[in-house]
Amino acid sequence: MAIPVRPGTSAGHWIPAADPRAVPQARLSWPLSPVPVVMKYFDAPETPYGPGHRGVDLAAVPGQDVLAADAGVVVFAGLVAGRPVISVDHDGGLRTTYEPVEPKVAVGDQVYRGQVLGSVLAGHPGCTIAACLHWGVRRGDEYVDPLALTGEVGEFRLKPWGGGP
């Protein structure tokens, strides 16, 4: 069985939360321009409250514009655990989140794809450069890999099979 893996990883170490064949390719646009370097990849938790990384961290510059990944409605713009977060609901049950971001939008605002939501702030935990944007996506209660929704699913390799019936 072929599974998608990120370039530079070994087979079987990365499986997106959602099968990319079940998701329209390029459903979302990148929240930073130009397309950023991914500093930390999505790592789906094994249980709803288990450890993992429920989004991707993207290399940014403090003050850089954060763009809406698709048209939608701002449902949150405020602090979560002391960090400024923006959440946008989109058609199809998707919700994108962006942090740390100084908002330029307010709850209830309708936004279009590519609209400036705010600006990246320095200080994202675990970021090894001046600033990183944490970008997360949920479909309902399930966190999904944002890269799978941009069409960035990597190359295909065969997963080792241990045999069996």
UniProtKB/TrEMBL annotation:
**Highest taxon of the source?**
Bacteria
All residue ranges annotated as the M23ase beta-sheet core domain in the record: 52-146
GO MF, one annotated term: metalloendopeptidase activity
Give the UniProt keywords, A-Z: Signal
Pfam families the UniProt entry points to:
Peptidase_M23 (PF01551)
Query: What PANTHER family has UniProt attached to this entry?
Result: L-ALA--D-GLU ENDOPEPTIDASE, PEPTIDASE-RELATED
Name of protein: Membrane proteins related to metalloendopeptidases
Q: Which organism is it from?
A: Amycolatopsis camponoti
